Amino acid sequence: MEVALAAISGRWATLVLRDLTHGPRSFSDLRAGLPTLSAKVLTERLDGLVAQGLVRCSRSPGFPVRTSYSLTSKGLLLRPLLEQLYRTGEALLDEVPDH
After folding, report:
1. CATH number (domain holding residue 87)
2. pTM score of the predicted model
3. pLDDT in tens, 23-34
4. Where is 70: in which H helix or E strand?
């Protein structure tokens, strides 16, 4: 459990991973999906996820160079965890406080 939680720790990491569960995305696509996230922080998160082996960065030859990010097989293992976190968050928001 500790390993899985460490993999998704860090602000924005879960949202970046969530967006990548829908398939490969360019840096611009990711920025558009997370408009309040700065380019600097997105770059840091992507670099960290690549270093952990959860995300693959592919660059196409030619000009302009196109960069695409996608989940690795290791990153795809996190999908059920991310989906359950989403469902749990929704359920917690729906709960009425006991006062």
Report:
1. 1.10.10.10
2. 0.83
3. 999 999 999 999
4. strand 66-71
